[in-house]
Amino acid sequence: MADLAALQKTLGISFKDPSLLEQALVHTSYVNENPGTTTSNERLEFLGDAVLGFIIAEELYQRLPQSSEGEMTELRSSLVRGDALSRMAKAISLGNYLYLGKGEEVSGGRRKPANLAGALESVIAAIFLDQGSSGARAFILRLMDKELKKALSQGIEPDYKSQLQELIQARHQQTPTYQVIEEMGPDHDRRFTVEVRVGDAILGRGSGKSKKLAEAEAARSALDQLPTDFTP
Fold it and tell me: Which of 67, 91, 102, 168 has the highest local Cβ count within 10 Å?
């Protein structure tokens, strides 16, 4: 059984109904291997996604009175996308508390970004149902304080590499790799060209004054032209 007392301490929340928190930790694979024992966190994940999106949208609306709809939409998407949520879930060691099936456990399910992001959304829903909107709001803003401050002070650059990785992992359970194929220019004005691949398939190519910038451009190029029926 998960140590719910320890998790509540980490979350800074004392649940009136701890069973809500426990349900938020139940992955579908656990239910599949233990039929009739419980329900998964999928319904909570659905609700948590909506609660999180609303609270972040309201916060951006209140704090950025001069920003356009498009600017706020981009910021909200950057804050609530899967890779951002999985990072925050890792920061509170949420994976340690998950109920997983044996197969999911063996395959590293406690570290999978999709599992972590979904569990965090489910926990948010559990807090919302147990503590109300004010409790959920306080938790979300506390958890996302650093990310929000960054967004409000300087905005968030689109993270093309994370977006591409999330897409490829979801579709094909693989991770893109980046390879420098060309370096040109003197040391003080170097330019790199990078290809991003999955297996032997080249997804995109990009150039920049650093490897990091070239990789980001390659990922952006891949996202722009990746067909929905792509097979590595």
Answer: 168
Quick check: do 4-154 and 160-225 share a fold?
no
pLDDT digits 0-9 by tens, 39-77: 899 999 999 999 999 999 999 999 888 877 877 887 888
Is the overall model pTM greater than 0.85, yes or no? Answer: no
Residue closest to 208 by CA, chosen among 184, 224, 225? 184
Out of 22, 45, 49, 59, pick the active-site residue: 49
Q: If you classify domain 4-154 with CATH, what class do you get?
A: mainly alpha
Q: Give the mean pLDDT of 190-217.
A: 88
CATH 3.30.365.10 fits 160-225, yes or no: no
Close Cβ partners of 87 (under 8 Å, ≥ 6 residues apart)? none
Q: What is the pLDDT of residues 148-176, one digit of tens each?
A: 887 777 655 567 888 899 888 888 788 99
User: Domain spans of the chain?
Assistant: 4-154, 160-225
Instruction: Let me know if 145 is a catalytic residue.
Output: no
Read off φ and ψ for residue 207, nearest 5 degrees: -130, 155
Q: Beta-carbon neighbour count of residue 83 at 10 Å?
A: 18
From the list 45, 59, 104, 121, the catalytic residue is 121
Residue 83 catalytic?
Answer: no
d(CA 205, CA 222): 7
